[in-house]
Amino acid sequence: MSELDTGAVAEQIAQSDQINEPAATPELGRPRRRKEDARLLTGRTRWTDNLTRPGLLHVVFLRSPMAHARITRVDVSGARGLPGVVAAFSGQDFADEQGSLPCAWPVSEDIVIPDHPPMAVSEVRYVGEAVACVIATDRYKAADALEAIEVDYEPLPAVLDMEEALTDGSPKVHEAGNKAFSTKIVSGDVEAAFRDAPVVIERTFRQQRLIPSAMEPRAVLADTDGDTFTVWTSTQIPHVLRVMLAVVTGIPEHRLRVVAPDVGGGFGSKLQVTAEEVLCLLLARRLGRAVKWTESRSEGNLTVHHGRDQLQRLRLAADADGRLRGLRVDLLADMGAYLMLVTPGVPMLGAAMFNAIYKMDAYEFACTGVFTTKMPTDAYRGAGRPEATFGIERMMDELAAELGVDPLEVRRRNWIRHEEFPYTTIAGLTYDSGNYEAATDKALSMFGYDKLRAEQADRRDRGDPVQLGIGVSTYTEMCGLAPSRLLGESNYGAGGWEHGSIRMLPTGKVEVITGTSPHGQGHVTSWSQIVADSLGVPFEDVTVLHGDTAISHKGMDTYGSRSLVVGGIAVLRACDKVKDKARTLAAHLLECSPDDLEFAAGAFKVRGTDAQRTIQELAYAAFTAHDLPEGVEARLDADATFDPDNYSFPHGTHLCAVEVDTETGMVRIRSYVAVDDVGKVVNPLIVEGQVHGGIAQGVAQALYEEAVYDADGNLLTTTMADYLLPSAADLPTFQLDRTETPATSNPLGVKGVGEAGTIASTPAVVNAVVDALRPSGVRDVEMPCTPERVWRALEGARR
Amino acid sequence: MIPAQFEYVRPDSLAEASQVLAEDEDAKVLAGGQSLLPLLRLRLAYPSKLVDVGRLAELRGVHDRGDHVYIGALTTHDEVMRSEAVNDGCPLVALATAHVADRAIRHRGTFGGSLAHADPAGDLPAVVLALDGVFVARSAGGEREIPAAEFFVDYLENALDAGEILAGVRIPKLGPGWGFHYEKFHRTAQAWAIVGVAAAVRRSNGSIAEARIGLTNMGSTPVRAHAAEAALQGAELGDQVRRACEEAAADTEPPADLHGRPDYRRHLARVLTHRAVRAATGTP
């Protein structure tokens, strides 16, 4: 310690009560409570709407009440003179500079990417599309002034049904027609698989349209000093957004800074380049002042991109013993009115997932993207994979029913056995690891499967008005987006690497800079644990910076359960580089060879002696730079990027028991067991939280949520009275456990966990509902399985 | 929340409030705000003035008045639920109030406000209707009594005249031998009733002597299931009661919305009425 004794900084370290000891037990796997929760839960934090700037102005948008219409006149002059109003503009006023909102995933050769002006100029194509705006000194005056804007519309026919939209006589959403793209992937001899197949099951399932409902509504604040521009926005993708805003607006990238302050949830809905982000930036440039927009919940229901919305026609061929021969998938995917950032890519993320954990001889996937006059769809928790998992898991239950075999038995006969990994699937993905048997066995014992089946039989025998149903979902998913090479092959517009930096501060504290952009996932805590273990520093001594392109200059942001498996590993790699530098410095100071040093508990120790330097001491030594070896810089800091060579493949078994009141149609979840395998776990509390929220969101799709448009294209579910989100009061206690089969595609053996619960749970619940009703002759209930739908399904079967 | 502009007044007395309301037909009474504020937020209502009666102590409180319980209009749902007088004298009101929205809203929302809002999907209108409550309206002209059967005029429309304020409601006590139940059917804990049934039933030996059934969300106003009430009179517990409850949806015109079409609501009314009557009579 002698070198440190004289420095004021060292004094501070010595006297401070902030000397934290490295944890005696490893941080990885420890249920740390989240560092960020106190400020997030109390709201004493930087939500975008909490931020203000000198002379701040507020913008509100006038939105189309028509699903489809030509705009023949917009007169904003009535708003311009009103109290507090600084400016009012129509789309025409920005026609020359607003550009077109980007689509970064042209999935096929034949794709049509229509022009998508942030503010409509000549035509509106969904209810809620912005047509004009008012900028005023407060939100109230701006909202009042909106009512003084006059717009004349010449109505055009709404296009709402995907199948009708593809017929010859259908009105068109865009001049080029209603087909956005079509793709087909074939693997194996599909004709042969279906020819003479003893069992062929054919079903059509509807994936209803959902509205992502992040707790924090979207908000954007843009400001300029005349030269540079800053956009604060409730986004998942500050880095991608910076590039895209530069491309769309022509503002050079180096004069544009994007900040994602604390963000209250996204679920994919904030993986977007929104009209409001572009327009706030352009308004700040036009007016030379700071401009803020915060949406209302109803505005958000109309104009946050929607999720799901597919019509799935599935055909499954099997042998008489249930062995799968082939699967044909024919999808219609509702794009809505325009292609947004990854709109067409969402169904394609399911392209290699319908075959799921099962072996088969042949597979065909066809998908047509369809334009309709509704809000565009895009990524929503799971994006493409929940849809695919729902389709195959429902089909496996239908196959089991057809054969009169237990649904788990049909799965067992077809799934990849644990000794067969790594396994290249019929769809071409290589699953690196997994153990479906172990997860299923564990789930079965927790669930009390046999006992519930006995109760089910008893209720059926008694003709109990409350029937019991048991639903199974043995899922996998591909996540951790991902290998840049594979993304390139799928024509995705960006890479899938991630960036991380470590800054060793003079006092030995550590700043981690991550290119991922947390919006509820707890990266600050998890990354602290990774770094604490790797560098041997106390958990409390690590802080994590993120979400500001001026601080975190490189990143690919947070979506697709990629943060830990890509971004966490980038941070780990940066730690390795820090340790390499520190080793050189330690060897110099301890006058030994680097090879004589062993690193443990945060210190480099000369083997066989007591001589050592902690990494925190070495950070100070690098800072003072009084005695550095030749060629060593005055810092231990390091940057690293990581680009895995494969996706990660979490899997698991979810079992759901429901009670269905056959008199009213009400479904109540009686018990729910989830055994997930997300590989090695950094923080089990965070993993549990992700699984809880994920299951809740999947249950919500199964039973509660649906965006409904009427025959004229008006959204009916604009408030939470009509768009039902379940709360804790509506959900059962989830019984959770894990198996741990490490991923082989990254050094921590971790897999993503952000989407697994949502992907797994929807088919588990619907399978349970159908299982309860199957003796009555019901073999499907469309989602969400509302009491009325369940009752009508029973009525239909009774007739 | 960004409502359209309105004036705000907070009168010191009921008389003053009544005068303001009499002078301006576009003025609205603001009590707990749990129904009115959402309408303002969505710009579905454009009142010229909000007359905040929230501090008029004379409108608050529950009083046991011998043959009836008087519930002041400003009494919050939470106060009603916990009131000894309500639980003793008209327990159905306490039972149903426990189903109103959620705990936070029950601490803000008021008994009178919820009734005066006259939303047929609200839980309390059907209850007060079933119990033959009497609404007490006050204005500069004095006090007027309005029977529950006349108070609910149409969807979100009550029988109060301009200048009249709902001061409170008299709930007659039903005496011994009565059982009560409120059966609410809704998709999530916080959602409105798709259908609700308020039942007050007097048992006599093995049959029903008298039944009063109020239906929530089965029309543009809360409605009494008169046919079922008649059929239940004298019905023996068991099959006869079940058959009587088949009349529950007679003469109703239930709404069609995202949560249920009319035929489903009629079906629910029958099933739920049977459940409510069984619960009220303590039979399985």
Automatic annotation (TrEMBL), chain A:
The reply on keyword Transferase is no
Q: Which SMART domains match?
A: Ald_Xan_dh_C
Oxidoreductase as UniProt keyword = yes
UniProt feature coiled coil, ranges: none
Q: Where is the signal peptide?
A: none
One Pfam family named in its UniProt record: Ald_Xan_dh_C
Stored InterPro entries: Ald_Oxase/Xan_DH_a/b, Ald_Oxase/Xan_DH_a/b_sf, Ald_Oxase/xanthine_DH-like, AldOxase/xan_DH_MoCoBD1, AldOxase/xan_DH_MoCoBD2, AldOxase/xan_DH_Mopterin-bd_sf
Which stretches does the entry tag as region Disordered? 1-37
Which keywords does this Swiss-Prot/TrEMBL entry list? Molybdenum, Oxidoreductase
Molecular function terms, GO-annotated: iron ion binding; oxidoreductase activity
Domain Aldehyde oxidase/xanthine dehydrogenase a/b hammerhead intervals: 42-157
Domain of life, per the record? Bacteria
Name of the molecule in the record: Carbon-monoxide dehydrogenase large subunit
Automatic annotation (TrEMBL), chain B:
What are the GO MF terms of this UniProt record?
FAD binding; oxidoreductase activity
Coiled-coil regions listed in the entry: none
Q: Which InterPro entries match?
A: CO_DH_flav_C, CO_DH_flav_C_dom_sf, Diverse_Substr_Oxidored, FAD-bd_PCMH, FAD-bd_PCMH-like_sf, FAD-bd_PCMH_sub1, FAD-bd_PCMH_sub2, Mopterin_DH_FAD-bd
rRNA processing found in the keyword field: no
UniProt keyword terms in alphabetical order: FAD, Flavoprotein, Oxidoreductase
Question: What Pfam families does the record tag this protein with?
Answer: CO_deh_flav_C, FAD_binding_5
FAD-binding PCMH-type domain residues: 1-176
Is Oxidoreductase among the key words of this record?
yes
State what protein this is by name: Carbon-monoxide dehydrogenase medium subunit
